[in-house]
């Protein structure tokens, strides 16, 4: 084969171009800093999570200490905030909940055992702090050292009823410890928290199944009236005149072969529903508020009804909410709902798990 001068020139040019291309790719294709930062974050996260847990944060809602715990959603928010504190401080998380029945009657541990046992107090220091309707300064200032000092006992009992998510998200380095608190929407944070810690007990599962079995389409409303003849010591939440909007929607749903379920804190609402709907589903038990004094027969059954109502609301295809943390919390856990409505002063407005908090701002779940 005869090699010409032209052939040699083309070959040499090709080699030069390949070398230039290789050098460009080598220096510009991947920024090493991205890989290094990612590896550093992964290493730091692993190091933090490998630190052994020391001490306890115990969410408290018991009769050992006076004062309110709040209703069902307040207690859930409090348990969530206490849990996040325990993760940030690398402490074990436990729950002592004996006010208005034991929590373990209704919820069982899921991924780890959070049940409190007084045996942990042996030869350990302990303290109690009450932050109901209050945010500790260390949380407000995102002061991790101050938070560690605040909960410096071996066993730290704490009563909280607010969600501190907005404060937690500002803590430096949170992504290394509990990244999903930054990554997820408010509603999905509670979904993850609840499913990580809890599952309904067999008693609650059977009671819920008894209500919703053989139901193909379910339209529900949680109607929080507030102060009424049923619960006299409470603030007023919903005006009776507003209920016409809910009744009209649910009548339309029933005409489309939906079964109807109403969870409420007022007997007159339940009586009215019985006259309006032929396919009304009900849970057994007395209507009461778990953090308001109740006396007489049926108190224990009433506490159970609160929890069963809550879980039924998480299974609704159509759900109507009023101003109440209870209903909002149920919507966070309801991933099958196809239509969600929020009651405003003059109408029902379509909303979603991701926008419901915009319709009911203020201190419903947190001090926003």
From TrEMBL:
The chain crosses the membrane at residues 7-24. Gene3D superfamilies: 3.40.50.11350. The keyword Transmembrane helix applies. Keywords: Membrane, Transmembrane, Transmembrane helix. This is Alpha-(1,6)-fucosyltransferase.
């Amino acid at each position: 084969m005869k090699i010409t001068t032209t052939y040699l020139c083309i070959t040499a040019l090709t080699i030069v171009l390949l070398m230039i291309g290789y050098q460009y790719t080598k220096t510009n294709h991947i920024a090493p800093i991205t890989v290094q930062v990612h590896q550093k974050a992964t290493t730091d996260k692993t190091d933090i999570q490998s630190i052994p847990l020391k001490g306890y944060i115990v969410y408290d809602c018991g009769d050992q200490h006076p004062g309110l715990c709040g209703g069902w959603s307040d207690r859930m928010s409090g348990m969530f905030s206490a849990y996040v504190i325990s993760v940030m401080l690398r402490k074990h998380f436990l729950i002592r909940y004996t006010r208005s029945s034991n929590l373990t009657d209704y919820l069982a541990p899921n991924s780890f055992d959070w049940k409190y046992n007084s045996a942990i107090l042996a030869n350990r220091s302990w303290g109690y702090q009450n932050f109901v309707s209050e945010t500790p300064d260390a949380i407000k200032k995102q002061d991790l050292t101050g938070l560690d000092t605040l909960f410096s006992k071996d066993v730290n009992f704490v009563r909280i009823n607010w969600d501190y998510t907005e404060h937690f998200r500002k803590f430096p380095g949170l992504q290394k410890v509990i990244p999903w608190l930054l990554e997820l929407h408010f509603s999905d944070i509670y979904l993850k928290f609840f499913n990580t810690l809890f599952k309904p007990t067999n008693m609650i599962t059977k009671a819920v199944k008894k209500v919703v079995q053989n139901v193909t389409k379910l339209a529900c409303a949680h109607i929080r009236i507030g102060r009424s003849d049923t619960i006299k010591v409470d603030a007023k939440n919903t005006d009776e005149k507003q209920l016409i909007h809910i009744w009209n929607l649910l009548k339309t749903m029933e005409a489309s072969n939906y079964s109807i379920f109403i969870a409420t804190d007022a007997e007159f609402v339940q009586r009215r529903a019985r006259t309006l709907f032929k396919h009304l589903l009900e849970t057994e038990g007395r209507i009461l508020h778990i953090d308001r004094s109740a006396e007489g027969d049926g108190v224990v059954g009433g506490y159970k009804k609160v929890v069963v109502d809550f879980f039924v609301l998480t299974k609704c295809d159509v759900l109507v909410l009023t101003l109440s943390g209870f209903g909002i919390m149920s919507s966070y856990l309801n991933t099958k709902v196809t239509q969600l409505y929020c009651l405003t002063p003059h109408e029902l407005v379509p909303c979603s798990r991701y926008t419901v908090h915009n319709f009911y701002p203020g201190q419903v779940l947190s001090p926003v």
